[in-house]
């Protein structure tokens, strides 16, 4: 039977502010069968792209990213909010659907020539993913793909990631 992953995504209207419909993945990751199927589908797309590393940003990107890296036999690297990482960092600022923010990565997280898949739970405006792509490329890595569980197609985030191989499992 083919699982309908979207049946485990909960719409939360007006979170974190009015007018935003938040796509809550907590029911998806709480269900063993659906969580596993999600990771297997992410891995199916990723495997032929032969990534050495999966990059995820806190917090939901850690959950999917670590599980995906494990399934692929790849490593996991983290992008975090400013001030959280202990070692020397590089930073990128981006605009969110609801505000602006920065992400940091360790300067030595990406070795030159490493193939990296940039992963997140939701593609909205694409600002976050674009910042992560810039961080990877700035450190001399190659973006092997940009991958999402959910894509909000009406925000056209994909267009900001032009030239990259972009994929999502669920589209709205
Ligand atoms: P963006 O940079 O606009 O593509 O926003 C993507 C980031 O914000 C992701 O890390 C998402 O987790 C989060 N995000 C933005 N919009 C939503 C939404 N409607 N529902 C859930 N998460 C969202």
What does this protein look like?
The chain is an alpha/beta fold and 172 residues long. Helix content is 26%, strand content 34%. The chain is built from four helices and nine strands. The strands form three sheets. The protein has a five-stranded parallel beta sheet, with helices on both faces. Helix 4 links the parallel strand 7 and strand 8. The longest helix has 15 residues. It is globular and about 40 Å long. The site of adenosine monophosphate has 18 residues, from strand 2, strand 7 and helix 4.
**Assigned CATH class:** Alpha Beta
Structural class: alpha/beta
Unreliable stretches covering 5 or more consecutive residues? none
Strand order of the largest sheet: 4-3-7-8-9
**CATH domain fold name:** Rossmann fold
Name every ligand kind in the structure.
Answer: adenosine monophosphate
Strand-and-helix sequence, N→C? EEHHEHEEEEHEE
User: Main β-sheet, in a few words?
Assistant: 5 strands, parallel
Figure out the total of helices: 4
Binned strand content? 25-35%
CATH architecture: 3-Layer(aba) Sandwich
Whole-number total of structural domains: 1
What is the helix content? Answer: 25-40%
Question: What does the average pLDDT come to?
Answer: 96
Radius of gyration: 15 Å
User: Ends: how far apart?
Assistant: 22 Å
